[in-house]
Amino acid sequence: MSSENAVETLQQSLIALLRQNNRSGRIVVAVDALDPAAAADFARAFEEGVAVEGTAVFHVALADGALGVRERLIAPFRAGEPFGSGDVAPADAILVVSGRFLHAAEVRGLWNFSIWLESNPPIGAPRPELPDAEKQYLRTVRPRAAASVIVENSDPAHPVQVFGDFC
Q1: CA gap 61, 71 in Å, rounded
Q2: What is the DSSP string of 77-108?
Q3: pTM score, whole prediction
């Protein structure tokens, strides 16, 4: 039995999935959730897992609909130029971007790998009403279908990968 905790085990599994198709270079990973704080927390744990493997890793939390993210963040990162707070990524690096609405059509193609975090209320608890923008995002963008990986994150100490089979 492993001494690792659930978060570390899941992060290692997600990093292995990422590495199946992205072995080297400047790689961009999106962590998308309706709760931007949950996305940032999960992204930081992912960042720690990547750092353990010895890869340079950076994290940027985006505000909703971050305008100019391609020009201000992604293009300079991939080109090895200053990005974000002035960092310059080495030839092999990972940029983890967290926030809401990261599977929207305008930004979906920027990520090499994406994680959709969902969170459900405890069994028996009422489901809160979502704001209209979030309902529309879920209905029209369908982040569950767009993401590389789905993670059920209701209990952040015990996140679980969900397999969204559509057959």
Answers
A1: 16
A2: HHHTS-BTTTB---SSEEEEEEESSTTSTTTG
A3: 0.91
Mean pLDDT taken over the chain? 91
pLDDT of 2 strictly over 60: no
One-letter amino acid of 130: L
The gap from C-alpha 121 to its chain's centroid, in whole angstroms, comes to 21
Kindly give the residue spans of alpha helices, DSSP state H, lying in the chain.
Answer: 6-21, 36-52, 69, 75-79, 132-136, 143-146
- Reported as a single tens digit per residue, the pLDDT across 97-136 is 999 999 999 999 999 999 999 998 777 777 888 899 999 9
- No. of helices (H) and no. of strands (E), the chain: 6, 6
The first and second tokens of residue 13, run together, are 């599994």
Asked if the model's pLDDT at residue 1 lies above 60, the reply is: no
Encoding tokens for residue 20?
């199946």
Cα-flanking dihedrals φ and ψ of residue 88, to 5°? -125, 125
Q: Say how far apart CA 159 and CA 11 lie, in whole Å.
A: 9
Q: Are 102 and 114 in contact (CB under 8 A)?
A: yes
